[in-house]
């Protein structure tokens, strides 16, 4: 009953969602890290103490002891699945770590004996032999433990994977969707694939803890005996402990974050968010077509450099900013006291040696000097070998950094400016394909076969065909996203390969079927449709109106400054279970650190397409003299029936541009535009099978286009 009540309470909390306000100054401490604001929960002395110094932790441990016993029984079952040799090896492997820790005691027993009696050759040899034996045993145990751990880990993963699988498979939908249950399920699996199972990790953690306690007691016993036998032992003991404690506190105080603490970080710097968005536009493959077809490279580079100059050295991701803050020296009281306290025991020891010179053998000082010199020498050799191995990689990376600027493009730039004058494309651009065939890189099948057609300036061309017939490929070749495998293409009578790419793409606008929205604000998403007008708010608002996106944008909390996909994630850890929102954004779990969801506002396909259409309209104005060719690839493909009015508006807009711009539109269905088209290209199986106007194609009874038209018309009767 108690367990059921606890689960019910957990689910109730998860449904309501826990509230936690990082902006509450009484609960959270604020630290500025460049463009980041870090909020760390105030924990008083627990900031300096180990996270295990918490009575609640021990209460939970006590309650979980029965599960530990059950796990040990299961592990015994795992061991019985193996043969006798492996079973013995695994048990040795677990206790091997404890025996390794015990070697520390034996090391120090020899050291203590050496300090108690005068140095004699026989005793020195005995001490040296004992230390060598302990070292050999320690290394042997380490080797055996490592070998056994692999086999034991593999069998434990196999055994517990079935248990975890069944635990997940048996849950129904409402239970699976419960945040508290899903959070619990995530703890059943290792966060990194192919690592140890949760059960084995727990047991090995206990073994490591036991080993650490054994080492701690042995070190403490030796330290106590050595200092007690000194003349000022009562003073040396607290001073030595204080110096070590101060060193621990100094290291602890330097790190703001810890695994057991609650913290959250957010950046509100719009320049940094936009700069990271531009980074994503350039790096993500899904944005490459829009970037290339829009000729955005130079504009985005100038924008990025401008933002970087404004931000200076503050433009860092969260973890870079955090570790930079941690490594920056600070004059805190703890750090100031650490050095003198560390040297104080040696000062006391020196004064004692002055009073009683015979109390410290010269041989012991020589031995200490020899050990120190040997350690330094070996450390230097290790550093040399390590750095020598990485010098080649570092220089290679440096070479690649500079060579990246000169990587040649497969689509070679032309040399002829286009157009010769703006007036020459004021009424549109002519486009001609001459026996063009094309295969996508890495494919053996042709996407286009022997395609030939000509579109005159100012004409409306509609390409009709089923999915995969080659419609989109024609548009991609027209924008020189790719070059044809065979044949030639002419723009205003010029071979398209001879024209400057930047000029060519500036003279056209294209809306791809698989369009993407950039991880930037809505304002920037629309404005990048025409980099020349990217800063013109009036032009952006007009394009949004033409794309029927104005009403959608007005309902968003930040309007045109809204990010549909935020490129910078908020960082956080240790939030209350069931908490669903932080800084106004949805909370999701991740690894190695938790981050908030990048999506502030989810939108349907139709709503997102309105923004993409608005971006295209930035270049489709009759007053826009630079653009002579407009291309739309399946503009209604992502729209639901309720959003068909967007397509109707788009088609109406296209018809109004007729005679001012050359327009090419691809679609898998005939309709309003095909009736008004100057030329229709009907495609099937990567080839153009019919060409003509709507009336001309309907005259032929065996026309594939005619059959498609009549079939779609009957659907509305």
Automatic annotation (TrEMBL):
Signal peptide: none annotated. Pfam families: ABC_tran. The keyword Nucleotide-binding applies. Residues 431-710 form the ABC transporter domain. One of its GO terms (molecular function) is ATP binding. Keywords: ATP-binding, Nucleotide-binding. PANTHER family: ATP-BINDING CASSETTE SUB-FAMILY B MEMBER 10, MITOCHONDRIAL, ATP-DEPENDENT PERMEASE MDL1, MITOCHONDRIAL. This is HlyB/MsbA family ABC transporter.
């Amino acid at each position: 009953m108690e367990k059921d009540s606890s689960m019910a309470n957990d689910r109730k909390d998860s449904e309501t969602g826990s509230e936690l306000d990082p902006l509450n100054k009484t609960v959270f401490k604020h630290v500025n890290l460049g463009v980041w604001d870090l909020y760390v929960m105030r924990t008083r002395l627990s900031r300096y103490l180990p996270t295990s110094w918490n009575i609640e932790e021990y209460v939970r441990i006590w309650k979980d002891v029965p599960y530990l016993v059950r796990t040990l029984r299961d592990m015994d079952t795992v061991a019985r699945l193996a043969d006798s040799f492996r079973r013995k090896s695994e048990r040795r492997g677990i206790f091997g770590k404890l025996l390794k820790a015990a070697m520390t005691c034996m090391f120090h027993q020899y050291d203590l004996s050496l300090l108690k009696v005068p140095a004699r050759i026989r005793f020195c040899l005995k001490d040296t032999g004992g230390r060598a034996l302990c070292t050999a045993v320690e290394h042997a145990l380490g080797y055996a433990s490592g070998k056994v751990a692999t086999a034991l880990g593999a069998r434990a993963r196999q055994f517990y994977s079935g248990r975890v699988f069944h635990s997940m498979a048996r849950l129904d939908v409402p239970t699976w969707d419960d945040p508290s249950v899903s959070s619990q399920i995530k703890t059943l699996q290792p966060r990194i694939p192919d690592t140890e199972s949760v059960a084995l990790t727990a047991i090995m953690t206990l073994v490591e803890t036991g080993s650490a306690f054994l080492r701690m007691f042995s070190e403490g016993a030796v330290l106590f005996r050595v200092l007690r036998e000194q003349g000022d032992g009562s003073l040396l003991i607290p001073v030595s402990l204080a110096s070590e404690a101060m060193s621990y506190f100094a290291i602890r105080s330097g790190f703001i974050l810890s695994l057991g603490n609650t913290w959250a970080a957010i950046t509100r710097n719009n320049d940094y968010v936009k700069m990271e968005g531009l980074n994503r536009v350039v790096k993500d493959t899904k944005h490459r077509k829009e970037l290339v077809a829009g000729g955005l490279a130079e504009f985005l580079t100038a924008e990025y450099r401008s933002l970087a100059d404004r931000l200076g050295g503050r433009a860092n991701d969260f973890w870079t900013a955090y570790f930079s803050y941690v490594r920056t020296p600070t004059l805190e009281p703890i750090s100031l006291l650490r050095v003198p306290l560390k040297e104080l025991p040696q000062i006391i020891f020196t004064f004692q040696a002055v009073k009683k010179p015979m109390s410290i053998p010269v041989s012991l000082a020589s031995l200490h000097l020899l050990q120190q010199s040997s350690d330094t020498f070996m450390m230097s050799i290790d550093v040399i070998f390590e750095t020598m191995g990485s010098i080649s990689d570092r220089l290679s990376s440096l070479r690649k950094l500079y060579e990246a600027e000169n990587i040649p493009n497969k689509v070679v730039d032309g040399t002829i400016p286009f157009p010769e004058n703006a007036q020459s494309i004021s009424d549109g651009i002519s486009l001609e394909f001459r026996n063009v065939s094309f295969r996508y890189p890495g494919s053996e099948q042709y996407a286009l076969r022997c395609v030939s057609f000509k579109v005159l300036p100012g004409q409306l061309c509609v390409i009709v065909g089923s999915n995969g017939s080659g419609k989109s490929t024609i548009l991609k070749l027209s924008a020189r996203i790719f070059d044809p495998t065979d044949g030639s293409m002419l723009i205003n009578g010029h071979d398209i390969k001879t024209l400057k790419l930047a000029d060519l793409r500036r003279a056209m606008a294209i809306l791809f079927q698989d369009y993407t929205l950039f991880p930037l604000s809505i304002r920037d998403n629309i404005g990048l449709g025409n980099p020349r007008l990217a800063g013109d708010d009036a032009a952006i608002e007009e394009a949004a109106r033409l794309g029927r996106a104005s009403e959608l944008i007005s309902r968003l909390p930040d309007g045109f400054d809204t990010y549909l996909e935020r490129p910078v994630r908020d960082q956080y850890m240790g939030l209350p279970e069931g908490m669903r929102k932080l800084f106004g954004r949805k909370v999701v779990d991740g690894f190695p650190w938790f981050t908030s969801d990048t999506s502030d506002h989810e939108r349907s396909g139709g709503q997102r397409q309105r923004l993409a259409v608005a971006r295209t309209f930035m270049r489709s104005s009759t007053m826009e003299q630079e653009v002579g060719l407009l291309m739309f690839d399946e503009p209604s493909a992502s729209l639901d029936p309720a959003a068909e009015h967007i397509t109707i508006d788009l088609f109406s807009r296209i018809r109004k541009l007729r005679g001012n711009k050359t327009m090419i539109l691809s679609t898998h269905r005939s309709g309003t535009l095909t009736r008004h088209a100057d030329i229709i290209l009907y495609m099937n199986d990567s080839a153009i099978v019919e060409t003509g106007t709507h009336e001309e194609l309907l005259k032929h009874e065996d026309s594939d286009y005619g059959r498609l038209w009549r079939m779609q018309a009957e659907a509305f009767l």
